[in-house]
Amino acid sequence: MGNERTRILVVDDEEIVRESLGGWLEKDGFFVQSVPDGKSAVEALEKERWSILLTDLKMPGMDGLQVLEEAKKRQPDLVVVLMTAYATIDTAVSAMKLGAYDYLVKPFDPEELSLMMQKIVSQQTLVRENAVLRKALKREYGFHDVVSKSPAMQQVFELARVAARSNSTILVLGESGTGKEVMARAIHAESPRAQGPFVAISCAALTESLLESELFGHEKGSFTGASARKIGKFEAANGGTLFLDEIGDISPKLQLDLLRVLEDRRFHRVGGTDPISVDVRIVAATNRDLRKAVAEGKFREDLLYRLNVIVINLPPLRERKEDIPLLVEHFTEQLGVEMQRRIEGVSSDAMVALMSYDWPGNVRELRNVLERGAVVAQGRIIQALDLGLAPAAVPEGAAGVGAGAAAAGASDEVPATLEDVEKRHITQMLAHTGGNVSQAARLLGIDRVTLYNKIRKYQLRRGDDSGSQQRPG
Amino acid sequence: MLEHVRAHLTGAFRAEVALHHDPRRPADAWDARRRQHSSKKMLSFLLEQGPPPPARVLGITDQDLFIPILTFVFGEAQLGGRAAVVSTARLDDGVPVVSPRVLAERVAIECVHEVGHAYGLLHCASPRCAMGRSPSVRDVDAKKPQLCRDCLSRLAERNDRSGG
Ligand SMILES: [Zn+2]
Ligand SMILES: [Zn+2]
């Protein structure tokens, strides 16, 4: 347990429960305060910070659900555990959807209570440590939003830092999804132009004339549909940075136009007569081999020469797999903020799947896979199956403890004997209770001793993963 | 078994330990609905029937004990108080044959544990120490009927402060 004592607030209308629970938790080293009703609980929450709230579900006045709601309003990261009688489990389960951490069925096993409290404390320690770690990582392994600890990328960061301070044109090379735009933004943020605009445009998606008017703007009436004057990206980026993605895809005419702008920093709007001067730093990017394109006569050599002042090469993700854990950390944090829910990371199985995949789509694909995982995941940890990667690596139908019933019952084969049926049923129950023998015994309607004997007889494991999934190999 | 417990208590707390056999049971401690004895009531019984203050009193019973919110307890003590109680009922944990030696060792461990609470000790992070948290028999078996260095110094500190 950490240096400062974890503070638990207990809410129960029965004095004897408050007393015995308080005494028990105090011996575990917790600081405990007990209150008899929801109103006093809210008061205690307003006065001080708590780590854990243990509340009874059924109470006169404000019930456990209302206490939960009020508590979460005041302190969203508060861990709330509901205590409930057997008859109200359904409510407790739906309360978990409202943000409760877990529930305990009264009376509960000492083991259950201690394990849950220990788990909460170690998770809270982990979250605190992660926050510290994350900051350190960003400092040590980050270049704005680009994170990496691979030696090759560290060199890239060094070059990018120096390049950012100059006013030179920069060419970023790398496969699709390696994060060329993220790098361009980082360069902008690191440059003296950081206060100016960052404007990005992809040159591949547009026809020649549309791209021309996008880049340079047009005067009213310069072509059909040009009903008003339009400011182009070059003008919009004045004082800042213009990011030209997929520069290898532009037409010969635009290559020439671009060359002229790069040479004299002046251009005309489409249909315009007066030249416009701008102060723009160009960062261009492509996944094509521009030298080859030059050799084939598809790309102007003089333009390549102009763009090629500083070249930053982004290695593909498969060549820097050591970055995957770091990127996972980074993206799950981002996704958590975007999706407004807590995502604490990926399971070790999921990490193995991520590390063994080849990543043709690079960092962007990794982010997409994690985003899918975060959407599909039942809890705060993304599991291997949630990722939808390499299905051969993970057994079908084993979706963790929550869906444990399906795992044990989904098999098509008919159980041979009564013992088989019993064995399966017990396995299923243990999976359902997450390996909790007392709870399983209650649900099965037998006593604990009998269940222990059966577990021994059938050699079932009763750990957290007992019976919920059976992995081949 | 009682001699074994006595030896360990003397060793751990360096205090005089007197043995006393009392066949009476507290009548009001029995909860007919739960078919268990309330450990709280057991403690008050011990305070009434046991030796006068400032002596501390530990009861050992074969009855299954509970506190209202938990299904059972191996024992209970008033934290920093006078009374403690330990039950042998769950220390076999459904294992069909527990050797008397193993059971005696478990009882000794839990007695040191509960008396430790009565002396004001909290749970200890060391899994080998008698003050380690032990919600299951497996955890009890991992412990020894002795206090670790840290707990001994905490105990000494408390004794100094209370002048005892
Ligand atoms: Zn204890
Ligand atoms: Zn200790």
From TrEMBL, chain A:
It comes from the Bacteria. Residues 146-375 form the Sigma-54 factor interaction domain. The lineage of its organism: Bacteria, Pseudomonadati, Myxococcota, Myxococcia, Myxococcales. Residues 7-121 form the Response regulatory domain. This is Fis family transcriptional regulator. Signal peptide: none annotated. Keywords: ATP-binding, DNA-binding, Nucleotide-binding, Phosphoprotein, Transcription, Transcription regulation. The modification 4-aspartylphosphate is found at D56. InterPro entries: AAA+_ATPase, AAA_lid_NorR, CheY-like_superfamily, Homeodomain-like_sf, HTH_Fis, P-loop_NTPase, Sig_transdc_resp-reg_receiver, Sigma_54_int.
From TrEMBL, chain B:
This is Peptidase. Its cofactor is Zn(2+). It comes from Anaeromyxobacter paludicola. InterPro entries: MetalloPept_cat_dom_sf, Pept_M54_archaemetzincn, Pept_M54_archaemetzncn_arc/bac. PANTHER family: ARCHAEMETZINCIN, ARCHAEMETZINCIN-2. Keywords: Hydrolase, Metal-binding, Metalloprotease, Protease, Zinc. The keyword Metal-binding applies.
